[in-house]
Specification:
Elements (H helix, E strand, L loop, with lengths): L15 H25 L5 E5 L7 H6 L3 E6 L2 H14 L5 E5 L14 E7 L8 H10 L1 E12 L1 H10 L3 H9 L17 H10 L3 E8 L8 H6 L3 H13 L2 H4 L4 E7 L2
Parallel strand pairs: 1-2, 1-4, 2-3, 4-5
Antiparallel strand pairs: 5-7, 6-7
Helix pairs in contact: 1-9, 5-6
């Protein structure tokens, strides 16, 4: 696995906090793309980004030379995606389609993608199992699914450290991991929840990583102003991400699953 500094997941000196929040996912995602391109003997892959919005992942993936289709329900997000792709010089490799996971198979070609990104989607759908089944139907044989969702334990820890102990207990006990009526997320997951969803959909779990284990807890002023702090925190995040002991307190959980 390449070191983060040589990839888009590395710390951007201008936006260190944003880079820290995506570094682990990029490290896993790009490794999977490299392996798939090599095994298929096709340097340019077809990637589907469901709920991809303005292209936070889609545009960098296109910059690697792959063709990316973004499906998102928001016309405004798709417009911003088009502008962002143009600024990055990858307009010819990024296609925006209006739609959602529920009706996904009606707007894309089933079985036509080497990798599907499903990031920040399952928290909002009515039926997460149906959502995973739909994205799996989009995969080619031996294709991969990159699944990123909010972690239940991370919310419990964050509310407790903020002094909201009642909300922390509510998130711990609530079936959907919500801390109360003011919670903006309809649903959170454990690592077991996500691996069960991909297994039930017929995929094999290749890896599970905790994302933003520390990044959301460390004071921003420390990361932004202390020399070397951002790089050191990035190394810590990458080291902790693979340790199952930290999955239960991660803000997000990332599962890479493969179709045999």
């Amino acid at each position: 696995m390449s070191r983060a500094g040589s990839r888009p997941g590395g710390v951007d000196p201008i936006r260190p906090r944003a880079s820290l929040r995506t570094a682990v996912v990029w490290e896993v995602l790009q490794g999977a793309l490299e392996r798939r391109a090599k095994s298929s003997d096709r340097p340019a892959l077809d990637v589907l980004d469901t709920g991809g919005g303005t292209g936070n992942f889609a545009v960098p993936v296109a910059r690697l030379g792959h063709r990316v289709t973004v499906v998102d329900p928001s016309p405004d997000a798709l417009f911003a995606l088009e502008r962002r792709a143009a600024e990055a010089g990858v307009t010819d490799r990024v296609t925006g389609v209006q739609g959602d996971v529920h009706g996904l198979l009606g707007v894309i070609r089933p079985g036509g993608y080497d990798m599907v990104l499903c990031h920040g989607v399952l928290e909002y759908v009515d039926d997460p199992a149906e959502g995973v089944r739909n994205v799996v139907e989009a995969l080619r044989p031996a294709g991969s699914l990159s699944l990123l969702a909010a972690g239940r334990g991370g919310a419990v820890l964050a509310r407790a450290l903020a002094g909201h102990f009642g909300e922390a207990q509510q998130a711990l006990l609530d079936p959907d991991g919500r801390y109360g009526a003011a919670d903006s997320l309809p649903r959170r997951f454990t690592a077991d929840d996500l691996t069960r969803l991909v297994t039930d959909a017929g995929l094999r779990t290749a890896s599970v990583h905790g994302v933003r284990v520390f990044a959301d807890l460390v004071p921003g002023v420390l990361v932004d102003t202390e020399p070397g702090a951002a790089e050191a925190l990035l190394r810590l995040e990458l080291a902790a991400a693979e340790d199952p002991g930290f999955h239960s307190v991660a803000t997000q959980l990332h599962v890479l699953a493969e179709r045999d």
